[in-house]
Amino acid sequence: MAKNESKNAVSPLERTSRLLDLVPYINTHQGISLVELAEVFEVSTDQMISDLTTLWMCGLPGYTPLELMDLDFESGYVTIRNAPTLARPRSITHEEGVALVLGLDVLRSGISSERLDLIEAIASLSQRIARLVNLPLALSASSNISQEVTTSVKDAIAHRSGLQISYHSLYKDVISSRVILPLEILDSQGYLYLHAYCFTALDFRHFRIDRIQSAHSVEVEKPSTALPVNPEKIGFSVKVVRPTRDVAERFEESNLEAGTVFKGSSFSQHWIARSVLASGGAVELLSPEEIRSELAKRAELILNRYEG
């Protein structure tokens, strides 16, 4: 009994593989006895009955009795019908092609660069599927965060060492070189941020990791200021002037009506200011006052340019 239990204690993947092998085997060995079939696949008779019962629910899309496989094994001998239709090649839909290409890309990203044979095989298969369903070859599911940058950041945090980074600020649209002391990685609104002390700004800053283009270890002196463990976000209050889809998506507010006031928070003062400006007058920033004053100055400057 213990032997049978050990033999049948397989992973779901192994059982799925056996089920896939069962269909063509039974199809070419119609009327094989249940006991012999269990011996061929090295499982107990009870396990084979469980597998055959599962196959009853398998078939082609539609999943009616016309498409499902029809098995008979109650007599102790196994026969299968409708299985030959599974041997017919199916065309791949556009959605299926996208899923396959993205899945292969994820698989490729997890393979060592030394396995060039696997990488080339995956690339070849991806190209064939892409051509088959007319997909752009640039389609990718890989993260746009550099693996080298991620490794450097994690090492710097672990050893409390400094980094010299090349950083692209989307708000200012400039690339700057900074020396920082990484403290921790934060997750906010679906993005990873690096909380660090910036020796260029002489203050604590947050850097979106996918915008760090390069990172190299450097020697730095620890800042005398106490390093906060949980930095606070900047809170803001916004009044809806005109409900729009852009406002709902930008501020992640689904229930919006004219006159509605909602609160939010962000690690970046620039993000708050640019988000309000980008709304095109659909929202009014109520607080904080310093950002509100800055927006008023920008708006006045823009209006003066139009008048000139």
TrEMBL record:
Residues 149-215 form the WYL domain. Keywords: Proteasome. It comes from the Bacteria. It comes from Candidatus Planktophila dulcis. InterPro entries: CBASS_pafABC_assoc_protein, PafC-like, PafC_HTH, WYL_dom. Residues 15-129 form the PafC HTH domain. GO terms for cellular component: proteasome complex. This is Proteasome accessory factor C. Pfam families: HTH_PafC, WYL.
